[in-house]
Fold these 3 entries.
Entry 1:
Amino acid sequence: MSVHPVESVPAATTRPAMNLPRLRDMASRGEKIAMLTAYDATFARVLDDAGVDTILVGDSLGNVIQGDTSTVPVALVDMVYHTRCTARGKRSAWLIADMPFGAYERSPEQAFDSAVELMRAGAQMVKLEGGGVLVETVRFLTERGIPVCAHLGLTPQRVHALGGFRVQGRDDAGAAALRADAKAMAAAGAAMLVLELVPSALARQVTEENLGLLTIGIGAGAGTSGQVLVLHDLLGLTAGKRPRFVRDFTHVAGSDVGLGIREAVQTYVQDVKQGRFPDEAVHGF
Ligand code: KIV
């Protein structure tokens, strides 16, 4: 039985509240942004104490919390619930919530209503998947004071349309489309962009072409402004074959030493900041 409410855990660090100017300042100084997913108050506190800069309440909760095979079944009510739980545990980290499939695609107004629910639950930014058709939605949200993180490359909510979890932007046409989408998202006001499963060289190019847009990579090499992983992957808890871009941070490479959750998360933060993760030879495409 648990003895302490999350609130009573002493602070390991006292950091000023993270915000967009601080994140932009980090990127302009070349300091990498460390992002991880979390879905509840306890893990939010652990991540925050370990120095994670931004926490994403990802719709990956459909996989790792709800046990589904994709993020498609996740509902807005699920995201609101987990965003509220996570917001209660975090202190300084910047909190982003995923807009789930079906909650934003129909119209900018629908997206606004969904984003308001997530912000009321404690999100400081919302993330949505896709380019082109969503540019106007991003403009609509940002003009109304809702910070937006776009998500290009592999967009898991479209897994059925994409034909599986595959690297995106490998050919010239795919790479050009992704670069155009990134530019359009930045021009529409997106402050951040997750790049998932794209070749390292393309992610680096998108980052260099859009100064001021914070790029966060997952399976996208080391050339982005920061990195994100799904917490359960980092902790080696995810069943089945591990994607190439994932590292289990509970194991020290080349030894039998195992790390606890706090140490594993601290190692992730340090390795992102010191450029030790990702290792392009191992985790890149
Ligand atoms: O849902 C999620 O966790 C995500 C990250 C993998 C970027 O979108």
Note: The mean pLDDT is 93.
Entry 2:
Amino acid sequence: MMEECRISYGDKRPDRVFTPGKLMCIGRNYAAHAAELGNAVPTSPMVFLKPASALIPSGATVIIPIASEDVHHEVELVCLIGKRGKNISEEDAMSHVAGFAVGLDMTARDIQQKAKEKGHPWSVAKGYDTFAPLGAFVPSASVADPQALEVTLEVNGEVRQHGHTSDMIFPVARLIAYCSTIFTLMPGDLLFTGTPEGVSAVTPGDSLQARITDLPSLEVRVSKQISIA
Ligand code: ZN
């Protein structure tokens, strides 16, 4: 578990420390990823929530739960909300972002598929402990354009996902504005902005490295849950 999200400003000003709030996640925000799972491209952002208890830092281990045989990696740009807001305009949206990091939206694809068929929610498929690895944050001011970043995910040194945030269907500012029509955004909330194509299953022993231009990389290992502790 991760108790805090920290943004370091070096010598310029003291670190800002946030308690993680809600994890707002966007599904199908890259057309090629929607297509690879046989889904239509949405006409408005598709939002789901993940519990903060799923967060783990870089260097930790993703646990494949006993209930799943098919856990996928989804590499995503993550925004840390720094300022409270409701019904935020797109023009004002970026002023609510305190920092950016690389995140993984780990997904039990087999459980998600069954949920889709039954019309059940995705909370189980997306919400297991360790299913939200999160790298270190940089201040938002150090990212000139969040829609001009290269996104990469390697498994054991082999590239599986390679995309570009310019391919997002709904850009970050639009996502923040949209989410704020539903939720009051609070400092410490996290926005997972969706994944490009190339999602695939992980296996015990795998080493994942997630990278986005100018952000600290995120590295996790994978193991299988062997018993109910
Ligand atoms: Zn995702």
Note: The domain at 18-222 is CATH 3.90.850.10 (Fumarylacetoacetate hydrolase; domain 2).
Entry 3:
Amino acid sequence: MNGDVAVSPAGTPLETPVIACVGVVGAGQMGNGISHVCALAGLPVVLLDVERAALDRAMATMARNMDRQLRRDLITEADKAAALARVKTTTEHAAFGACDLVIEATTEKEAVKKAVYRALIPHLKPSCLLASNTSSISITRLGAATDRPEKFIGMHFMNPVPVMQLVEIIRGIATDEATFQATMALAHRLGKTTAVAEDFPAFIVNRILVPMINEAVYALYEGVGSVAAIDNALRLGANHPMGPLELADFIGLDTALSIMQVLYEGLSDSKYRPCPLLVKYVEAGWLGRKTGRGFYDYTQDPPRPTR
Ligand code: NAD
């Protein structure tokens, strides 16, 4: 990150903020992955969740995922030990006082994220950048709910973070050039490749991916095929590494539904209407892998289709 010279739109050099300590809010699937890659890149990480149990699970998941990297000779035992030692878990926002960037990775609900910013902001130093890992919500609107819209940016990691190459970077209307450059430099330091997306609902990846998943749920709902038939069809017929329903379970059905709602409301187009069957699964609490049941039942080995 040192040595990057950012230039403002007016052509004057900008001081790119140095990110030496990262905070992560939300220790779910994404928060633990983001902490994992930051810690392995040598950055001290402060990881916060409202639930102590979520923090303990996140640390265990990180250790397990690093073991997998160890077995593939991607890291050493010493790298793993040093990275895990860099992650401090907390339930107190005051722990973010020394952070240069805080990445919010809480539940995909605008009200939750705005409440997080209200709780967080009094504890941040004025220069601290704030990023959201939102899959779909307007970065401009989220940034406007903070005291620092010019230092607010979308940093959309893909799941699973240690494996997936891409980070989408989304500027809100007020995001300044120095914040953009610092965020790009951090993504590259983490070994990721960036795609810059404009701030429209669901950005690039989910604008295309999640309507496809929703269409797969419609195909199931209308009886076009069973869960297994739909997933096999896309795996073998379109060469997708995972079927769309398997992928929905992996993402989390609540997250997939929230993204469809953001597309439907944000673009006012009926082609984005969420499938009623997806709504029903979420209402049942069948959220996919993270709750043990979605389009597949994960208490069975191998997971058994639920329809
Ligand atoms: P998750 O349900 O696994 O985790 C969310 C975590 O946020 C939980 O541990 C919860 O306890 C915590 N949380 C909720 N309210 C909080 C608060 N007020 N303060 C602190 N922590 C709080 O969800 P996830 O899949 O990790 O998704 C998190 C974010 O990342 C969402 O915005 C989602 O859209 C985005 N995202 C998800 C994926 C994916 O494939 N799941 C991919 C890219 C981006």
Note: The chain has two domains: 6-197, 207-305.
